[in-house]
Amino acid sequence: MYSKSEIVQLKQAFWTAFGKYLSLETNSEGSKINWINYHTGIKDLYFRTEADHKKASVSIEITHTDLLLRELFFDKFKSFRNFLFEAIGEEWIWEEETHENGRSISKIYIELLDVNVLNQSDWPAIISFLKPRIVGLDKFWNDVKDGFDELR
User: Fold this and answer.
1) CA pair distance 136, 130, nearest whole angstrom
2) Structural domain tally of the chain?
3) What pTM value is reported for the model?
4) At what angle do helices 81-88 and 123-144 cross, to 10 degrees?
5) Three-state secondary structure of the chain
6) What are 128-150's pLDDT values in tens digits?
7) Which residues are within 8 A (CB) of 97 and not within 5 positions of it... i.e. 6 or more apart?
8) 73-102 pLDDT per residue, tens
């Protein structure tokens, strides 16, 4: 069992290591980018990388409180589903409505189960899972983001 401070330190060490590992990776336009805090440029639309004591995941989260707007964004992503598959090479899980932290959101994601960010021996597997997916997500976003202009 870990103390709260140990958990915080291990998670911080992981995200620092992950950030350093990706710091040499440029985005699809050749620019430096903060991969951990990826900015889509659209309010309430997030690309998230997460790791905890059970799994690691990469996700697209649509967090608009307006249900109609959230549905429009989700439908737009569905229209680009083939582009996502081409950029990443795998099918993701699509949830038009799910509940997280007491809020309704839409989420498109992929998970790696049975890894623990608190176990440093799992870090290579987590990093190997997260890196190609967030880089592929960036390529996908660069190709399709103009298609979201009317929803801004």
Assistant:
1) 10
2) 1
3) 0.93
4) 140
5) CCCHHHHHHHHHHHHHHHHHHHCCCCCCCCCCCCCCCCCCCCCCEEEEEEECCCEEEEEEEECCCCHHHHHHHHHHHHHCHHHHHHHHCCCCEEEEEEEECCEEEEEEEEEEECCCCCCHHHHHHHHHHHHHHHHHHHHHHHHHHHHHHHHC
6) 999 999 999 999 999 999 999 88
7) 104, 105, 106
8) 999 999 999 999 999 999 999 999 999 888
Cα(32)–Cα(86) distance, integer angstroms: 23
CATH number of the domain bearing residue 19: 3.30.1460
Cβ–Cβ under 8 Å, residues 132 and 23: no
> What whole-number distance in Å separates Cα of residue 66 and Cα of residue 45?
13
Q: If you count them, how many residues does the chain have?
A: 152
> Would you state the structure tokens that stand for residue 52, as one six-digit string?
């905890």
What token pair was written down for 127? Answer: 């990093």
Residue 69 · residue 141 · CB < 8 Å = no
Q: Which domain holds residue 77?
A: 4-151
Q: Which position has the token pair 């660069």? A: 142
